[in-house]
Amino acid sequence: MPEVPQPVTDNSVKVRQLSHYQFSWIAGEPGKPGTYTLQLVLDQGAWEEILTLDPDDADNLQDLLTNTETVHYDIERRVLMFGVTKAGS
Fold it and tell me: Which domain of life is it from (predicted)?
């Protein structure tokens, strides 16, 4: 059996399941574009992450999040992973 560093803490879990998300838009200076953010609530609030997005990424991510039932987030690599497919399918 592999040795697992102890204790296992919230900070030692590297991949978490997305529970909820919220897009926000922050106004820029007059005449300047605003900034989109995406707040990720992971594992029912055990971890949260806020991503800063450009408008195209915000649009694409909103489509993916709307159309994907299960989403995971790798905290260390900052990677959203969409969907789960059973091996052999």
Answer: Bacteria
Q: Strand locations in the chain, DSSP E?
A: 15-26, 35-42, 47-53, 71-74, 79-82
Domain total for the chain? 1
pTM of the model: 0.80
Q: In angstroms, rounded to a whole number, what is the distance separating the alpha carbons of residues 72 and 40?
A: 10
In contact, 16 and 73? CB cutoff 8 Å: yes
Domain residue limits at 78 = 17-82
Q: Is residue 45 part of a domain?
A: yes
Q: Evaluate if residue 74 carries a pLDDT over 80.
A: yes
Is the omega angle on the peptide bond into residue 30 within 30 degrees of 0, that is, cis? no
In a domain, 69, yes or no: yes
CA atoms within a 13 Å half-sphere pointing along the CA-CB vector of 88 = 0
